[in-house]
Input
Amino acid sequence: MLMRIVLPVVVLIAIVLPLVTSGWDAFLTLVWAKALPVLGIILLLQAGQVSFGHAMFFATGAYTAGFVIRAIPGGEIVIALAAAIGASVVAGLLVGVFVVRYRYIFFAMFNLAFSMVFFSLLEKFIHITGGSDGLSIPRPEVLGQAMERSEYEFVLYYLALALLVICLYGVHRFLDSPLGHTLKAIKTNETRIEYLGLSPRRVLLIAYIISAFLAGLGGALVAVFQGIATPEYAYWVRSGEFVFVAILGGTGNVFGALAGSFVFEYIRVTATAYVGDTWQLTLGLVLLVIILFAPSGLVGVINDIRGYLKKDPVASGHNKRPAGKTEKQRGEEQ
Output
């Protein structure tokens, strides 16, 4: 229902919104862009693996787009995004070949380690990256057309929305494919996959490269929108933010990336306006509520409401914790 009904409705509203009102364009452009790396995290979570280092791919995309735009007179956003995607895929392949050999906490920590190394390199190579001040990115041309700021943001809004919808649908189809089902099987019983003659490492590597591609594309969109790329893009806090948003939105459906990103940005902007530097406290409380009362995230809440309206006990049970088996049941199975 989410992909067939809710997503088309959301996309339709998003298309019409800038035409009837103003003030939401910048906010929603960042929501679309930041939902992409979250989508990559959700993809890896299907295999039971969490990455606390995907900010390095986010930063890879951002800096690559910046370097390309600065190198080409006038810049060109299409070339910059294509280069960012290419660099992120290559980085995902190089790092992924190493980290997919590990699982769970080791997988998470190795990703974190690579990310922090990359963060340090961005800060130390001042003459190339601008150090802690970051890399200033001039406004690029769009298909050879130089635009004013308002016109440029208008185009970027729809470009980010279109790319997000394509990626959401693509990941949804991937997870519904034989490769996607094999990826989910890694979480439950990896040994059985090997008995079937498949390579769990290879499947996880493919998912890892796709997630790096998504993170890099998101980073490039944020960078060309904000006009700057900083080392904080690769910092571990950014990686934790992506995981936070994935849990908030719900890891059971690709739509969780969009729902989580929107709610996260809305709470952050609103809380910053009213409670200043303690906006993290608000986000922490929200996450506690989600974990305690809706472990399947916002998507689980939507499914619960749908199940309640349809009187469907299965659909309305997404946010109920699974009950453990009794001793008698375990004895019968043995």
Q: What stands out?
A: The first strand starts at residue 135 and ends at 136. The beta strands are 135-136, 228-229.
